[in-house]
Amino acid sequence: MDSISSDAARDGSICDEAIVLSVTSALAKDALSYFQSGKFHECIDILIQLNHKKRNDPKVLHNIAIAEYFKNACSNSKKLLEDLNTVKKQSEEFAKEPLEAVNPGSNVSVSKHQFDSTITTLNIAVTWFHLHQYAKCLSILDPLFLNIEPLDETIALQICFLMLDSALACHDAVKFLEVFGHLDKSFGVGFGTHEEIGSTMQLSSNQVSKTSSLLSSSAASDALKSDLAAAESGLCEEGLEYDNVLAEIEAEKRMKPVGHIPANNLLKTIGERSILTVDVKLELQLYKVRFLLLTRNVKLAKREVKHAMNIAQKRDSSMALLLKSQLEYAHGNHRKAIKLLLVSGIQKELRTSGIFNNNLGCIYYQLGKYQAASVLFSKALRNCSSLRKDNPVKLFSLSQDKSLLITYNCGVLYLACGKPLLAAQCFQKASLVFCRQPLLWLRIAECCILALQKGLLEEGNTSSDRSEIRVHVIGKGKWRQLMMEENGFVELGGSAQWPKLSLPLARVCLSNSMYLLNVSLMNDYSKSDLESPLSVMINETKEASWSDHGDADTNSELKEAKGGMNQDIIQNSLSAYKDIRRRENHLLKQALLANMAYVELELENPIKALSAANSLLQLPDCSKIYVFLGHIYAAEALCLLNRPGEAGAHLSAYLLGQEDFKLPFAQEDFDPWRMNMSSDCEETSDCSTGNARDSLKPEEARGALFANLAALFATQGHYDQARPFIQHALALLPSNVQATITAVYIDLMVGRSQDAVARLKQCTRVSFVPGRLEVRAS
Amino acid sequence: MTIMKMEETAIVWTLLQSDLRPIQDVLAEFNSKFTRSRYFPVCSSLSILLQDPMILRSTDRLIAFAIMHQCYSSVKPSLNPFVSEMINAACNEQAEKYERAFLLHLFQWNSYNNAKEIFKLSAADYIKTFDPSTNDFPELGELQREYGNKADGPSSHMFADYALKKLLHDPDVPRGCDPNSPEFDVQVQPGGISKIGSGDRNEAISGILGSLTMGGLAPRWIRPCPPRYPVHQSELLWIDPDNKHELVWDDKMCADTSRGATVRDLLVKGLKVTLSPTEQEDITTALSNDPKLVYHCGITPRKLPQLVEHNPQIAVEILTKLINSPEIVDYFTALVSMEMSLHSMEVVNRLTTAVELPKEFIRMFITNCISSCENAKQQDKYMQNRLVRLVCVFLQSLIRNNIIDVKDLFIEVQAFCIDFSRVREAAGLFRLLKTLE
Fold it and tell me: Is the pTM for the entire model greater than 0.90?
C-alpha cells in the first residue's frame, strides 16, 4: 500500500521533472560544447541560466568555477580553490540531508549521485598539483582512492595518474606502489614478466627486426653490450657501440622522423567511454620504469624500459627513450644518456625543450662541466618563461612550467661553483616546492657558511681582509710599534647585496632541516613497524650493495626466470630503496649536526656547539669524516667552556704515541660520499674533479689536530709541549693563519719576540699595513 | 672594530697630556665628555698603554691611572675590572715611587689617604712635590688580599684568559734603546731630513689608541669547515614531462539521472518477489554493459538478505561485481548474519566458484550453518533434517572443490556429522572426512 502511493506520487512528479530535465540537459550540452571550443563567456552565460533554473546545484556551480578560471586565463588559482572548496562543502551538506530525510527507496542513490563531489575533489587536487603542492594533492586524493571502485573508469584513471605523478614528485615509493597496484589489478600490466604481453612483444620484436626497425635493435644491443661492457669494463667497446648507435640514429632519421612526445594522449579521450587499453598499458609500463628509477633499481629498470620500448614501438617512443636516457644518467653513462636524450626528440617541441635543456644540464653537471650546465639551465628557464607567455590559457602550461625545479638545479650548480648568494636566491625561490624537504634547508645553510668563508656576509669582512693577519705599523723610528690583528674587521661600506644570508639564518635553516628530517624518520618508523624485521634482514644481507642492489637483482632475475613472484621483486626494490633512504637520511643527520656545531661555534655559542658535536659523536655508524669533525668541534667548544682536560681527550683520540697523529680519515672515506656512483661508471674521473674541491683533505685534518693540540697546550701554559706540535702543524699547513698565530703566541710567551716577528714576516698571509695617522689631524 | 672612535681617541690623548691642569679638573672634563658605557673601552685602551712603561710619560701615566680609578670609584675596588693591573703597578719594584704612591693613594691604603688633596694638584706638580724618601710599600699579596677581585673576572673563557697583549716592539728598534732619551729628538730644521730613529711619541700613541681592538692575542683554534653534503645525482632534478592533468568538466551536470533506473526499479521489486527470467536477464545485461552500475543500483548490505531470499542468482551477480569494492566486507557480514536457508547457501556456494572469498568469511559461514542446524531442533524435525542435508551437500561441494581446507574445521565438522549421523548425507560427509584424514 505504501509503495503504491509513493509510486503514484513519483509518477506525477516525474512528468514535471522530465520537461525541466530535457531543457536543462540541452543547456548543459550547449555549455559543454562552448567550454570545449574555448568560448568561456558564452559558456558562463548558459551556466548562469542553468543556475537560475536549478538553484544551488553544486555541479552547475562547480562548472561555473572552472569556466571562470579559464576565462581569466588561469590566472587566479586561489579563487578557483576557494570556489571549489565551497562547492565541495555544499555538496557534502546536501548529500547528508537527503540521506536522513528521504525514506529508503530507489531515490537514495540518485540524490547521492547528484551531490557526489568526486569531480570537485579531483579538480582541487589538480589545482594543487599545478601549484606544485604534491603532498597536499596526494592527501586530497587519498579518500577518493580508498573508494575508487565505484568511480567511472576515466575519472578513476585520472585520479590514479595524478596520484602516481604526485607520489613520484614526493619520492613516496610506498604510496606509488599502492596506487600502481590498483591500476595493475584493473588493467593487468603487472611487474616483471607478463606472459601474454611478453609473447606478443617477442613476436613484434621479431617482426621488427625483420623490417629492421632500428629502435628495438638498438635497445636489444644496448642491453647486450652493456652487459658485456659491465663484465669486461671495456671502454673501446663503448666507443664502438657509440658509433654504431649514432649510425643507426642517422639511418633512422632518414627513414622516418621520430614521433614526438607521447603527451599521454589517453586523457584526451575524456568523455568517451573507454580508454585505449594499450595506451594505458604503455603508460603503466612507463610508470613502472619511473618507479624503478625512483627506487634506483637500475638493472630492473633497464629491462622494463625495453618492454616499454616494445610497447611504444607502434606509436610514440620518445617518453620511453627519455626514460632510457635517465636510466643511463642514473647509471653514470653520461655520453649514452646525452645520445638518448637527443634521440628522444623532445628538444624539437617548444613544450618540452625546457625539459630537454634541464636534463642535459644535469648530465653536464655530473660531468663536472659547470659552465655548460649553467648555460643549459638558463636556457631551460628561458624556454619555460616563453612557454608561459605564449600559452597562458591552458592550465597544463602551468604544470609544464618546471621553472621552479630547474631553479633548484641552478641552486645546486651555483653552490658547486662557489656562488653562495646566487645559489641561495635559487633555493629560496625553489622553496615554494621543496620547503618540506630537509635537504633544501641544509643547502641554504651551506650557502650561508660558504658566504661566511668568502666574506660575503654583511656583518663579515670583505674577502681581501678575510682570515689574514694584519700587523699595523704604528709610529715611526724609535716609537715604531707593531700591532697584530687577526681577522681585521673592516666595515662593509654599503655593500647592499640582496640575500640576508647570515649565520643566524644558517642556524634556523639547520634546525628546520633537522625538524623535517626527524618528522620523516618518525613517519618511516611508525609505518615500517611491521616490516622492520624484514628491513633489518636486508640491512644485514646487503651491506655491500647500496648503489645498485646487486643481490636483490640477481635474486629477482632468478625468480623472474621461473616466471612470477613479481610482487617480491617490487617489494625487494622498495625495501632496498627504503634502505638507501635510511642511509641517506643518516648521512644527512650527520651533516646537519656537524654544520650545527660549526655554526654555533661561529656564533660563539660553545654550549650549543658542544651538544651538537656530542649528538654527532653519539650517532651509530658515523662516517669517519664526521667523527673527526665531531671531535674537533667538541674539543674547541670544551676549551671555550674552560674544560681543557676533556678537550684534550677528544684530540688525543687520534694520537699515535706521544707526538704524532694518525690520519683521522682516509681519502677513501669520501668515496661513499662521492655520490653513490655505481662502480661501472664510465666517467668517474670527471666526477671526482667536480667534487674534490669541496672536501677536506686528510692531511689538512691531521694538521688541524696538531695545531689545535698545540693551542690547547699553549693555553694551559705548556709551551714546551706545544712547540713540537705547532712545528708539525706548520709543516703540514705552512700558510695557515690560525696555526701561525698560535706559533707567534707561543714564541711571545717564551719571550722570543724576534722569532715571532720573523715568523710573521715569513707567513705569506701576513700583511703589514700603515697605522691610522689621520687621528692626529683631528 | 676598534675600541674607541676617532674623536674619543683625540679627547683621551688631550686629557692625558694635561699635565699642568689639576687632576680633578681633568677628571671632571673626562666625566663630562664620556658616558658611563664608554668607560670600559677607554680604560681597556689605557691599560694596554700602561703595560709598556716607556710609551707614556710619567705624568700621562698618573692621569691614566686616575681615570681608571675614577671610572669605577662608585663600586668596591675589587669590582673594578682593572684592579689587578693597578695592584700590579703599585707593587712593581721597577716603577717610579711616586707612581706607586699615587696608586696607593687611589686605593686609600693605610696612611695613603690623600687622594683628594693630590687631585687638586696637577700631575706635574704632584711629581715635583713628591717626597722620594717614602718607603712604605706593601707586598703584592697584601694588596691582592685587600682589593683583589676574587670572583672570576669578565673574561669569558680560557682563550681570553690567556690572551696576550698584542703590542710588540718593532724588532728593528734596538733593545734597550730608551725612547725617552733626547738623543734622537734633535730638533731638525724645518724642511730638513729627520734623523734615523727620530719619531713622534704623539703619533705613536694616538696611532695605538686609534687601532686598539678588544681582546688579546690568543692561541687560535683551527676550525675546519664541514664539507658540503654530497650532491647525489638524484638531487639534481631530472624532469619527465608528466601527464596533462587538466581540470575536469563535470559532465554529470543536469545529466539524465535515469541511468540504471530500470535496473533499480527491477531490483526494488526483486526484494519482494522472484523476478521473471526476462527481468533477470534485463538486469544481468544492464550490469554487464555498465560495470560501474552495480555501485549505483541501490542494493545495500542491509537489503542484501531480501534479495538473496528471492533472487539468489541476481545476488550472486551483484556480489561478484562488487568483489573489489571496499564495502564488500559489509555485504559478507550481511550474508553471514542472515538466517540460513537454501538460497543463502546457494549464493555462497556459487560465489566460491566465481571469486576468491576470504577464508575467514567461509569459516564463519560454515559455523553459522552448523549452529543453525542445531537450533532448528526445537522447531521442526522435518525442517531440521532438510537443513542438515543441505549443509552436508554444501560442505561436500566445498571440500571437493578445494574451497576449504578441512583441517581448519575438522573437529567442528566431525562433531556435526556425529550429531546428525541419522541423516544419510551426514554419514556420507563423515566418510569423506575419514578418507581425507
Answer: no
